[in-house]
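QA checklist item 7 of 12: single-chain prediction sanity check.
[x] sequence parsed
[x] length recorded as 72
[x] structure emitted
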Amino acid sequence: MAAVPLNRYPDMQATALREAAAKKEGVAPVEVLFGNGSDELIQALVAAYAEPGETILVPTPTFSMYKQIASY
């Protein structure tokens, strides 16, 4: 642990992890997305694909954050 720079943030793009996961799955690294939990990933998907005022269908039952994030 003495060699680990704990006072530094990790790679925000998770480059090594994305490359390893992409290689394992046979896709390009740009096709792999990691986040700090499902809430962040749901928010990123809504921000990327939904326009303000659009209707988003949320199936029931499902994870509660889909509806909450879509309501922003």
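[x] summary fact logged: The radius of gyration is 16 Å.
[ ] second reviewer sign-off
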